[in-house]
Write a structure and sequence with these properties.
With 128 residues, the chain is of the alpha+beta class. It has a single domain, classed as OB fold (Dihydrolipoamide Acetyltransferase, E2P). The chain is built from four helices and nine strands; from the N terminus they run βββαβββββααβα. The strands form two sheets. A six-stranded antiparallel β-sheet has the order 1-2-3-9-8-5. Strand 6 and strand 7 form a beta hairpin. The mean pLDDT is 95.
């Protein structure tokens, strides 16, 4: 199993969140990208869009399937990783680094309490 970074929060839909002040960077986990296979396309939310926790924020497509991205937090999208337009495989190569998807200015930091830490996410994966 891939190392699960301890400094992130995780959703049951396999997105991760890295908190930096009142901004949250979002991506998909190594487990998610491994399950999807080779990523071929990402449909991002628009910069300025208002996202709601546990609601659709975009679509990710792979050679195997297309899956909805679910936002792990609520807030306004402040940036998207446009580098993935020409190199979506960065999600497969580095899901916790260069493969980040978008950043959100948090509407309610307490929503992070509903997410799992690395140990809880690892247990969650074992139960799936």
């Amino acid at each position: 199993m891939t190392q699960i970074p301890p400094n992130l929060k995780y959703s049951q839909t396999h997105e991760w969140v890295r908190l930096e002040n009142d901004a949250a960077t979002v991506g998909i986990t190594a487990h998610a990208q491994d399950t999807l296979g080779d990523i071929t396309f990402v449909e991002f939310p628009k910069v300025g869009a208002q996202l709601t926790q546990n609601h659709e924020s975009g679509v990710i497509e792979s050679v195997k399937a297309a899956s909805d991205l679910m936002s792990p937090v609520s807030g306004v999208v402040t940036a998207v990783n446009n580098a993935l337009d020409s190199a979506p495989e960065a999600i497969n190569d580095d899901p916790y680094g260069a493969g980040w998807l978008y950043t959100v200015k948090l509407a309610d930091a307490s929503e992070l309490n509903a997410l799992m830490d690395a140990a809880a996410y690892e247990k969650f994966l074992e139960s799936e």
